[in-house]
Amino acid sequence: MQSFNPPVRTLMGPGPSDIHPRVLSALARPTIGHLDPEFIRMMDETKELLKYAFQTTNELTMPVSAPGSAGMETCFVNLVEPGDKVIVCINGVFGNRMKENIERFGGEAIVVADDWGTAVTPEKVEAACQANPDAKIVAFVHAETSTGACSDVAAICQIAQKHDCLTIVDAVTSLGGIELKVDEWGVDAIYSGTQKCLSCVPGLSPISFNEKALEKVKNRSSKVPSWFLDLNLVLGYWGGGAKRAYHHTAPVNALYGLHESLLMLKEEGIENAWKRHADMHQQLKTGLEKMGIKFVVDEASRLPQLNSVWIPQGVDDAKIRSTLLNEYNLEIGAGLGDFAGKVWRIGLMGDTARKEKVLFCLAALNEVLP
Ligand code: PLP
After folding, report:
1. CA distance linking residue 362 with residue 370, whole number of Å
2. Which residue, judged by its Cα, is nearest atom 5 of ligand 1?
3. pLDDT tens digit string along 199-227?
4. End position of a domain, from candidates 212, 234, 266
5. Which residue ranges run through the membrane (predicted)?
6. If exposure means fewest CB atoms within 10 Å of the residue's CB, which of 92, 233, 318, 330 is most exposed?
7. What is the per-residue pLDDT for 242?
8. Residue 345 among known ligand-binding residues
């Protein structure tokens, strides 16, 4: 055996996305202790930078030491108590995963279903809230990575608030790529991932809880049924203040990477990052449409960072993707679930949302398509 040296790819799938050299070099800095005062200083800065990314002043804003799925579980395991009714919107793979979480933690899932490739319909959420006045939570995905559809966070949160429900929002694919305003839109609990529009390594999950959500966690009548994800315990380490206690060994170097990628987002300015993603989407769209390739999602609810397109008729899905990978070092995403074999997912996330990469992808597709 030898050291592992991965090929240098251009990552234009559903994540992970390309990582900027500044972030890669941050990962290689010397490891220090997770209770070292210098490390704690960096943790505090990371929390501030995450607040900026989420557009929130929530004190409880921190990265969970595990991938996006753990951020999802952190929200559900802390906020759902046995017997709680939770309205969950399903318009793709990740809404389904939320339902799994609700049921595993003893909640009752009330499903609001929308077709794959469409946004969650706020009127259906309103109807579900009216039909279930005892519901405690409304949960939904902002940016459905399996389809490329974007849902209206502000509208759904407003409905949930009117019916006295907390909201849990999946922002794994949205954070840093499209407009997201946690405080202004009234989101109560939210989670994301670092490997999409933040262009950092996979394996960390930023979360943010407002006071109302934290109150629910603190006043549970039963213990949180996960030791590792119990926020009452995690906050002894991440909560701030002079006294930090060991909870688990933080992924020190991965957090250097997150600090660097968030710093880059701050330097660029979040509105500029949102605009860059939108502009790159326009460029990709123009090129794909010239090739006769059609989008799955209507323009009004289309995500710029996750472009789902119908595979042209007669084209061999697996062969094209493997040719792109092997001959061009270019990864594009396959369809997931109901869309497997029918759809490609072209990601323009974070550092991948650059003009030279869009043009490269268009040129490569042009060459390999029959
Ligand atoms: N939610 C959404 C919308 C996602 O796209 C993903 C991953 O692609 C996840 C949750 C799970 O994140 P992870 O794969 O980092 O566990």
Report:
1. 14
2. 145
3. 999 999 999 999 999 999 999 999 999 99
4. 266
5. none
6. 318
7. 67
8. yes
